């Protein structure tokens, strides 16, 4: 063995061997030392290491072991850097590898500037694991933000999960660490090993900007090559903006992919993305919906969270396939004329050891104070929206789904919990804002900025807020102080109307205002009427189970309610299974009860929802002025004694107006006179009591002719039969 003193000093050798050196790229690889070219390699898996000229394949030198897996040697007759390989031996095994420490940094000055400033809107292009060609070599570039870590390493099967082997390069003041690992590609399993500021080795962390993940319960990230997908939806993207505005029909089918349909013959497994691309897409299109909305698909460790406790915000869950297969699902939606909305969760994140919590040993993504950084409702952590880098991380993630996966909308979960610092907290358990109030000013600014940036990038997309309070201007422009969302879920309407429907019909006259109150504020926001998964879990029962009465009345009540909903101003959202009156409460671990469609009442409900969607999409008066007061007029909103409601819906000039009449008692109303604002023939377009839906077939098949008899403030009126527990749509016939 040669004298190793000039090759590396003892203290440096020790810190490299321990994986605790602050700048390993200054030590490992090729370096000039006193006029000689010295190569050092940390290869604890090898007994011996040789340096091979990559061009000539000649052995140049055998490196000397200098302790604890570290090897070093002088390259003879070489003064300049050159391409080389390391040939390792261990017993009888011999293998060649390129040296990660032979490669320079990949992140550029602009990346470093934007990362340091916290304004990198294409954050995923810089951070994460990217399969690429770097300095002429194929491999994967890794980059992660961990400003308070003393050391960050990439670990995986490729290096025996040994954090000493691939310690990353720290990029100055940005707090970003990066390394290019030659030879690694799509499918590589990896995590980050970090040492915190106190010198403690932390639990292994998944990549915050990882594009793939292992199948739970495994928790590692997986390198996924996002290059090269051949999108076929250019035509859809060009015209989707015209389909997602306030004056267009939007009817959303909300789906939890894991439980929509399963394969009992194969261990009751869920469908894959590719199977959903055929079966789910075909079904939603056949049912007349305009959009599919998915509960969160960002990788999540606990299936019982339904995705609402995500760890991998940039990774479509591996439960159903690869990122490219998820893209194929999106493509299939667009080919079928369906928009795709995904639920997005910037409101909280789980404290799983491999996740974002205390990522580099410090409260990096969350607040240090649990009064700000811990969510009591879900036992999760809360993002520090006031930290520029965290805001950048979240906004870039929103843009990522639009740009990389061509999704059409984001529904933002639990917005109310973000807007208020005292949300679900008792006195003394929350920290007031800088002005002494309860509003979370940082979260408000974040939501405004997110909406500004995603709409600025592409104004054909939509965002929707699940927001349950009276916070003003959720769907108003940020220029007027609003949050800038395209739409807001109307939680008040949902709660009021479901409470009304739960009443026995004999008592409904005492609760009449629950059905009319929503019209006092119906045009204050751009509303979506949501019957979501939250209404059919946790002991709330199914939609059918909420309805009072015997079997016939329960089905009739639900049909009448859906008619009321489709006739009411606001876009529509219905959770899977509700369209065919699933009898049992939703269970995320089993398939929907598709066998119920063997029974006529469930067939009838499904047919009604399909026909409601068809009528809705074909009738501009039912959607054109959803957000405008002049698109709605009560005919008789005060008939509490009969529990009958009637109103008009209007579109723009030339659109035939629609009269909606809903009866929420089991008593048919014959010779029922009702005012109409126009003379002419009023055709019955849909009757939820029709026999094909399971009803009594009471109605007005021939329509009704307006008579010159004034009523309800109208110059004309019609005499009709109002079926029991039913909603009926009439439209003015035009020549």
Automatic annotation (TrEMBL):
Gene3D superfamilies (UniProt xref): Glycosidases, Golgi alpha-mannosidase II, Immunoglobulins
EC class (word): transferase
Keywords, comma-separated and alphabetical: Carbohydrate metabolism, Glycogen biosynthesis, Glycogen metabolism, Glycosyltransferase, Transferase
Recorded metabolic or biological pathway in which this protein acts: Glycan biosynthesis; glycogen biosynthesis
Cross-referenced InterPro entries: A-amylase/branching_C, Branching_enzy, GH, GH13_cat_dom, GlgB, GlgB_N, GlgB_N_E_set_prok, Glyco_hydro_13_N
Enzyme Commission (EC) number: 2.4.1.18
Pfam assignment, any one: GlgB_N
Active site per database record: 413, 466
Stretches assigned to the Glycosyl hydrolase family 13 catalytic domain: 254-633
Reaction(s) catalysed (UniProt annotation): Transfers a segment of a (1->4)-alpha-D-glucan chain to a primary hydroxy group in a similar glucan chain
Self-association state and partner proteins as the record states: Monomer.
HAMAP family associated with the record: GlgB
Family stated for the protein in its record: Belongs to the glycosyl hydrolase 13 family. GlgB subfamily.
Chain's role: Catalyzes the formation of the alpha-1,6-glucosidic linkages in glycogen by scission of a 1,4-alpha-linked oligosaccharide from growing alpha-1,4-glucan chains and the subsequent attachment of the oligosaccharide to the alpha-1,6 position.
Protein name listed in UniProt: 1,4-alpha-glucan branching enzyme GlgB
